[in-house]
Specification:
Layout: E1 9-10, E2 13-14, H1 18-27, H2 33-45, H3 50-66, H4 72-86, E3 100-105, H5 112-125, E4 131-134, H6 141-154, E5 157-159, H7 167-181, E6 185-188, H8 197-214, E7 220-228, H9 234-246, E8 250-254, H10 264-272, E9 276-280, E10 288-290, H11 293-300
Parallel strand pairs: 3-6, 3-7, 4-5, 4-6, 7-8, 8-9
Antiparallel strand pairs: 1-2, 9-10
Helix pairs in contact: 1-2, 2-3, 3-4, 5-6, 7-8, 8-9, 9-10
Bound molecules: guanosine-5'-triphosphate.
Guanosine-5'-triphosphate (GTP) binds near residues 106, 112 and 287.
């Protein structure tokens, strides 16, 4: 029998518990105000955040009244359709015969380097052999080494300098050599580790401006934030800071296999409107999936 709080493993990791708990809630309530109050608690515990949860539950309350909804199933379906409207997704497709620069951002430990390796493998499998990895995380010597290993595994070139080098210079060199070799996709790693927000923002803006100066009009430059799904609402704060600094184009959510929650996609989508591109579900290179709203909701509501 299922016990709340106990981590149940699915094929891809920890089972989300929203669906089960929602069903239990509906079994124990008639459709009255206390149901909506308990539902608010449940959505907040699933990482949807206070304000967003209140807006969603208000909407549900109104729809239930207006549409004269009276069954458990109808409530679940209505909630799903309200959530579906909030979710933003994007498929990042490198443009043919152009230089594509994907700058991978995020605070330390969220899974940037691993996601770059997974993306290299993903795009490589799709037939793109002109990929180069840029070791812009110069803060940690091991990050450069890690990227070099991933480069060997995926069969792609890695541009790197020593630890402590200027990340902008490494990425600048990568773009220059990619152009010279007619490579079409640069996946650039960054450190995201500054002792305060002002320094972090300055560093990010410097990298952004160096890239803008180096690319040609018409090149495809994307800024992609990596968020660790186990950090819940912190992910929203990180997205706010990085978005303010460099205006993000997309998000990769990692470690989705390690959380029973998974609702922060909703609050980030609703509050910031930044679309999700990929979802990481494990440590292996193959554990990266395109983010698909329908399968995300199906997984979130499973029981
Ligand atoms: N379970 C799981 N682990 C992951 C996933 N993505 C990354 N990891 C693990 O998270 C840890 C940190 O990943 P890194 O790729 O080194 O993170 P980073 O953001 O580059 O870290 P820094 O270089 O310190 O900034 C590693 O142990 C990865 O194997 C995922 O989707 N699921």
């Amino acid at each position: 029998m299922f016990k709340f709080g106990k981590k149940e493993k699915t094929d891809k990791g920890v089972r989300k518990n929203l669906g089960r708990r929602l069903l239990e809630l509906l079994n124990n309530h008639t459709i009255d105000e206390s149901l909506f109050e308990d539902l608010e608690d449940l959505l907040i515990e699933s990482d949807m955040g206070g304000t967003v949860t209140m807006e969603i539950v208000d909407q549900l309350r109104n729809h239930v009244k207006a549409k004269k909804i009276s069954t458990q199933n109808e409530i679940i379906e209505e909630l799903k359709s309200i959530l579906a409207e909030q979710i933003k997704s994007i498929e990042l497709i490198p443009e043919k015969d152009k230089l594509n620069v994907y700058l991978i951002l995020g605070v330390n430990g969220v899974g940037k380097t691993t996601s770059i390796a997974k993306m290299a493998r993903y795009y490589g499998e799709k037939g793109n052999r002109d990929i180069v990895l840029s070791a812009g995380d110069t803060f940690r010597a091991a990050a450069v080494e890690q990227l070099k290993i991933h480069g060997e595994r995926t069969g792609f070139r890695v541009v790197h300098q020593g630890q402590g080098a200027d990340p902008s210079a490494v990425i600048f060199d990568t773009i220059a050599s990619a152009k010279a070799r007619k490579e079409t996709l640069v996946l650039a790693d960054t450190a995201g580790r500054m002792h305060n927000r002002t320094n972090l923002v300055k560093e990010l803006q410097k990298i952004d401006s160096v890239i803008r100066k180096k690319i040609e009009p018409g090149d495809n430059y994307r800024k992609i934030l990596v968020i660790d799904s186990t950090t819940g609402q912190n992910g929203l704060q990180q997205a706010e800071v990085f978005n303010e600094a460099v205006e993000l184009d997309a998000i990769i959510l990692t470690k989705y296999d390690s959380t029973a929650r998974g609702g922060n996609i909703i609050s980030i989508s609703r509050k910031l409107g930044i679309p999700f591109a990929f979802i990481g579900k494990g440590e292996k290179l193959t554990d990266l999936e395109l983010f698909q709203p329908e399968s995300y909701l199906e997984d979130l509501f499973s029981y």
